[in-house]
Design goal:
Elements lengths: L16 E2 L3 E2 L4 H17 L10 H67 L4 H9 L1
Antiparallel strand pairs: 1-2
Length: 135
């Protein structure tokens, strides 16, 4: 935009203008109404009520809530690690039990085979059968 203005030393009756819509203020008297309007607009701005939290209090409350959430996340992570350790221990115990059962089963099968062989070698007499049944 080009300002059409006269030099300050020349006196003309035509007001100094900045384009055809705006007039450049020529003195402090013209600024006073504008300052008054500005003050009125500033007074009209909504102000926080006495019961409303201030910005600092709001930020403090949010930071406190965030700290609580971080604490909960830390506790959840600790629980997850503990649960994982328990699961690993459980798998290890199951594996040990299965290995023990397998070896015990093998031992029992060999013992059963040995006993059946011993029974097979005993003469099947009436006295022997009676003793076996009594035992």
């Amino acid at each position: 935009m080009r300002a059409r203005e006269t030099s300050p030393g020349l006196h003309t009756s035509e007001p100094r203008t900045l384009d055809k819509w705006f007039t450049i203020a020529q003195g402090p008297a013209e600024l006073e109404p504008l300052e008054l309007q500005l003050k009125q607009l500033l007074r009209q701005q909504p102000r926080p009520l006495a019961g409303e939290p201030t910005l600092k209090a709001s930020v403090d409350a949010e930071e406190k809530a965030l700290a609580g959430l971080r604490s909960q996340a830390r506790q959840a992570a600790e629980r997850a690690r503990k649960l994982e350790r328990i699961r690993v221990a459980e798998c290890s115990m199951k594996k040990s039990i299965n290995m023990h059962d397998a070896s015990e089963g093998t031992h029992l099968r060999t013992e059963a085979t040995r006993l059946s062989e011993m029974l097979g070698s005993i003469a099947a007499t009436d006295d022997a059968v009676t003793r076996i049944e009594d035992a």
